[in-house]
Amino acid sequence: MAIVLPGRRPALRFRRSGVLERRLRKGGHPLDAQLNVVPMVDMMTMLVIFLLQQFSATGEVLYLQKDIRLPDARHGAAIEAAPVVAISPSQLFLGPEKLGEVPALLAEEGLAIPALEEKLLEERRRWEVVHRNDPDRDRHWTGAVNVQADVKVPFKLVKRVMWSCGRAGYHDVNFATVEEAERSAAAR
Asked: Which UniProt keywords are present, listed alphabetically (predicted)?
């Protein structure tokens, strides 16, 4: 076998047909490619507009689930970031995690909701681990929890949630409400 230089060797039939003739020529292709940036600029503009619409200047800390209708309030204060207990007409949540069905919780005896207590204690332990080596000692654990309760939820269940929060060490219970002015503006 003869010694040949390494490189491309098209099949004999392609060499004879001339199909690859332009590709095999050295130096025939420009190395710079034209890039159309108009679609990229359009996409970036759309992303910026989307992000600006989603941005909240008020610093909203609650995500309201679609099946929860909050009660109206005339006076209130802005709530701070804390674990969120959401009580819809059918389910109980701590953040995104479902803890139980409302009819089953109403049928139970006693004040405590063990699943809620356990998850809140877990949340407190997580907070303590995260802030163990925090150089800013002024920020201590406040024991705050935000409750989103639907208007139709019986007070018995709200009382049980408050009791369970207190047993887990969350004594600062804040209730999420909607200002009447906001609800009337949204209804128009």
From this structure: Cell membrane, Membrane, Protein transport, Transmembrane, Transmembrane helix, Transport
3-class secondary-structure state, position 31: coil
Is the residue at 11 inside a domain? no
Strands across the sheet containing 84-87: 97-101, 91-94, 84-87, 144-149, 172-175
Q: Are 174 and 143 in contact (CB under 8 A)?
A: no
- Own/partner contacts of 105-114, CB < 8 Å, gap of 24 or more, are 105/157, 105/160, 106/154, 106/156, 106/157, 111/159, 111/160, 111/163, 111/164, 112/160, 112/163, 112/164, 112/167, 113/160, 113/161, 113/163, 113/164, 114/164
Asked, for residue 154, whether it belongs to a domain, the answer is yes
How many folded domains does the chain comprise? 1
Between 95 and 43, residue with greater pLDDT: 43
Residue type, 148: Q
pLDDT of residue 96: 84
Sign of the Cα pseudo-torsion (175, 145, 153, 178, in order): positive
Across 73-77, average pLDDT? 78
d(CA 8, CA 24): 8
What does the pLDDT read at residue 47?
Answer: 93
Domain with 182, as residue range(s), is 72-131+142-187
Contact indicator for 23, 7 with CB cutoff of 8 Å: no
Helix (H) or strand (E) holding 144: strand 144-149
